[in-house]
Design brief:
74% of the residues lie in helices and 0% in strands. The protein has helices at 2-20, 22-32, 34-58, 71-87, 95-98, 102-117, 121-145, 160-181. It folds into two domains: 1-59; 63-188, no CATH class. The radius of gyration is 18 Å and the shape is globular.
């Protein structure tokens, strides 16, 4: 469990640096340079992911609450929405007219949808921790950036890229889920 907690904390702290730790980020870049800073940042993120995966896989599930009967079905649908939002964050799309932070919203939906399907302690730490981080990140970025300026409308065809990418990512994640987490996304 310690590895899992450390991974979630490392991930969260590192990802909050751009929105709440700008002076620290600037000082690091000034000291070692932008390229090395980005390299250390990327390696640290990979380290956080490794800690979370190892922590998850090495922690026995300890029940905290009974997941509702509809939890798995809800998570299956919510995960598709999460992936479409995530994939639509870096391409021009109308999603950004309705959701200020589609990538972070996708991560929050990922986290909280998994809590509907899993009621054990390690799920609370991983999915709850990352879901809360995504919400906190949205608030801190909003404070940093000020008022939201909604983009201009785009043709509906702009939604095709995130939709197709979301479908592909969904299929890939369903296939890889047992290998990454040791748990089938559709047990039984």
């Amino acid at each position: 469990m310690l590895l899992l907690i450390l991974g979630v904390l490392l991930w969260s702290c590192l990802h909050l640096v751009p929105s709440v730790g700008r002076p620290m980020r600037s000082a690091c870049i000034e000291r070692i340079g932008e390229g090395p800073y980005k390299g250390v940042f990327a390696l640290s993120i990979v380290g956080a992911i490794v800690l979370m995966v190892l922590g998850w896989r090495s922690t026995a599930p300890v029940g905290v609450y009974g997941a509702p009967a509809w939890g798995l079905d809800f998570a299956s649908v919510a995960m598709f929405v999460s992936l479409v939002l995530f994939m639509g964050s870096n391409v021009p799309t109308n999603l950004k007219r309705f959701v200020r932070h589609p990538q972070l919203a996708g991560v929050a939906i990922w986290g909280f949808s998994h809590l509907a399907a899993n009621g054990e302690l390690r799920s609370l730490v991983l999915f709850g921790g990352i879901g809360v981080w995504a919400l906190v990140a949205m608030v801190t970025i909003n404070r940093r950036d000020g008022a939201w300026e909604r983009p201009e409308p785009l043709p509906l065809t702009a939604e095709l890229k995130p939709l197709v990418a979301g479908i592909v990512a969904y299929v890939v994640l369903v296939l890889l889920h047992p290998y990454l987490s040791g748990v089938s996304p559709f047990p039984g």
